[in-house]
Amino acid sequence: MYTAASFAAGLIFGLGLLVAGMANPAKVLGFLDLAGAWDPSLALVMAGAIAVGAGAFALMKKWTRTLLGAPVLLPGPRRIDRKLILGSLVFGVGWGLAGICPGPALVLAGAGSAKGLVFLAAMIAGNGAFEFFEKKKGVAPGPAPMRSS
Amino acid sequence: MSIAWNAFTPASALIGGAIIGTAAALFAVLNGRIAGISGILGGLMRPQTGDISWRIAFVAGLVAAPLAWGLLAALPEIRVDASYLALAAAGVLVGVGTRYGGGCTSGHGVCGVSRASPRSIAATLAFMAAGSATVYVARHLIAP
What we know:
The complex is a heterodimer of chains A (149) and B (144). Chain A is mostly helical.
C-alpha cells in the first residue's frame, strides 16, 4: 500500500513538473537569469506548490500516524549549519549550469533525453561520492551485526 | 532586469505547481514522509531492509510520468542547451551538493518552505542565489 502510494505520488509529481515547465531546462534557466530576459514562471510554480503543501502540512501538524497508519517521519527543528549552506550553494551552481535539479533529471531520463541521462548518471555518481566521503569520515565500522535465527 | 512576457506562462506554472504540491501533500498524509527527491534517491545508496521499495516506487513514478503523458499527448518542449561536459559537471555538483545540503528544490524548496522550516528557507535562498549567480556568470560574463 505504501509502495503504491509512493508510486502515485512520484507519478503525480512528475506530471506536475511537466505541466509547470520545470522539466524544460531552458525554462528553468530563463527563471534563474535575473539579469537577462527574466521568465518569472517558476516563482508561480513554487507559489502553487507551497500553497497546497502548506495546507497539508498544517493539517497534519499534530498527527503521529498517517491516513494509512504509517508513522509520521517529518524532520524536527535543526540548526542551520555550514554543511546545509555550502551543500545548497554547490547544488545551486550545478542547477545554474544545467537547469536541471533531481526531480526533473528523472523525468528527463523517462522522456528518453540523452542529455538528461548523462546528467542523471553524473548526479548518481555525485551521490556515490558523498557516501564515499561520509563513510571515510565516519568512525571505523564496528563488528558485523549478529544475525538472530 | 526585463521580464520576458512572451515566455511567461502563469497559468500552467500555477497549475503545475499545485499538482506538485498535491503530490507532496499526498505523500505526507499517506506515507508520512517528505517528498524530497535527492534524499529519496540518495537513500538507495545505503539500502536498509524495509526502506527500499517505497523509494524505488517513487523514483519509478517520476520516470513513468513522461511515458504516461506520452500515451495521451505529445510531450511539452524539453530543451537542454548545456553541453554534455557541462551536464556531467553539473550532475556531479547537484549530486554532491543536495546530499550535503540535505535536500533539493523538492525537499527544501517545496516541502520545507511549506512547513516554514528555517533550515529549508535558508537552503532555498542559498541554491536560488547560487543558481542565479552561475547563470549570470555563464550568460553575461563568459559568453555575453
